[in-house]
Design brief:
374 residues; alpha/beta; Rossmann fold; 16 strands; binds iron/sulfur cluster
């Protein structure tokens, strides 16, 4: 059986070391010329979750986008760059603050707003969703996730980055339609299966730990990682970051397999000086328990937003919430209707001043503590 190759290359920063590291990580896959033919249409898909600076490590670093665009063009590809930020975000501000807008201008590559380009409706594995036309019609998608921990799914990297191919508020609506992490993760896998050929290069030079995907802390990880198989790449990242893949709901069906049967690891093996600060994803905890018990205790296991005094009452979280669970009144922090909250993290992702923390229920904290002790 041919295993998916996942390659790693050490890279300490986004300066001179980046171009050689990119070349090195691609060499294990035959370089750009093995991945794309002259004249083929390629969509480069960074993580443009929110209007954050490159130093905040929320978005893919613009220099990674620059060198990927250059490499693809040298191979003769027709390149576009695009992503749909979290709901309610102003895409122009995301482009500007993330530095991706400037890079695309300098490299003279089109930067797309998926919301303006239309979508293709897809039915797959019982799900219906609309994929940005520019992605669905591409010959190749080059997926550029940022390596981050995630308050809901524990890890966000290659597979989850494809969610940005769904334009507009659809992302939030689908969170509402599939509130259970296990359902949501099946949707992610269905989306991944419906896409054209894709190749992922994870920006793990500086990643994020703690309250990702938007409010965690930047952490130097020192690597790029690449694969034609996004699932294999995420499994290899779990191994590298010492994250149990059973805690990542969209990897659960492969989590019990020995890594050596899932992917072939090549290149540098990054060594982390310490374990990352990894949030306990609600989805993982529910998956560990028998179905009958889950039904019984599910109401006691939750992750919800909590608001701090940093709040400037901008109302973005209210606009982003797909479940209408929030409201803002003058002079007060946002008010949550807890029963409505589906823990989709959309509010957490759009807050411009990091005034939202995803808070775990007492039972979830206890289960998390128990897991650490055992
Ligand atoms: S309050 Fe936040 S986490 Fe809860 S449903 Fe609304 S956007 Fe999602
Ligand atoms: S919590 Fe954040 S997004 Fe919500 S109103 Fe306050 S500042 Fe705006």
């Amino acid at each position: 059986m041919n295993l998916s190759v996942v390659s790693f290359a050490a890279c300490a920063d986004y300066g001179h070391a980046l171009a050689p590291a990119l070349k090195q990580v691609l060499a294990h896959h035959g370089g750009w010329s093995a991945l794309v033919q002259p004249g083929q249409r390629v969509l480069v898909k960074p993580n443009l979750l929110a209007d954050a600076t490159p130093e905040q490590a929320v978005t893919t670093h613009p220099e990674v986008v620059r060198y990927v665009v250059r490499g693809l063009r040298q191979a003769g590809a027709v390149v576009q760059v695009g992503d749909s930020p979290a709901s309610a975000m102003n895409v122009a501000r995301v482009w500007q603050k993330s530095g991706i807008g400037a890079i695309c201008q300098e490299e003279q590559v089109p930067l797309l707003s998926f919301e303006q380009g239309g979508l293709r409706q897809i039915e797959r594995d019982g799900f219906v969703f609309g994929v940005a036309k520019a992605a669905y019609e591409a010959d190749l998608i080059v997926n550029l996730p940022k390596v981050k921990t995630h308050a809901l799914t524990t890890l966000t990297a290659a597979v989850k980055n494809f969610y940005g191919l769904l334009p507009g508020y659809q992302k939030a609506q689908l969170h509402k339609a599939y509130p259970k992490p296990s359902q949501f993760c099946r949707l992610l896998r269905a989306l991944h299966a419906a896409l054209p050929p894709n190749f992922s290069i994870a920006d793990g030079i500086v990643g994020m730990e703690g309250e990702g995907p938007a409010n965690g802390k930047p952490v130097p990880l020192g690597f790029l990682a690449a694969s034609r198989d996004a699932i294999a790449l995420d499994l290899a990242l779990c191994q590298t970051l010492r994250i149990d893949p059973r805690r990542v709901p969209y990897l659960a069906d492969r989590a019990h397999l020995p890594p050596a049967t899932c992917f072939e690891r090549r290149g540098d093996t990054p060594l982390l000086a310490r374990d990352l600060d990894v949030p306990t994803g609600a989805g993982h905890m529910l998956q560990l328990l028998p179905e009958s018990l889950v039904r019984l205790i599910a109401p006691l296991v939750w992750v919800r937003p909590a608001f701090t005094r940093n709040c400037v009452a901008c109302g973005r979280c209210v606009a982003a919430c797909p479940a209408q669970a929030l409201r803002v009144t003058k002079g007060s922090l946002p008010i949550l209707q807890a029963k409505r909250c589906i823990a989709c993290c959309c509010c957490h992702e759009v807050c411009p001043v990091q005034a939202i923390r995803m808070q775990r229920s007492p039972l979830l904290r206890l289960l998390g503590t128990f897991r650490e002790l055992t």
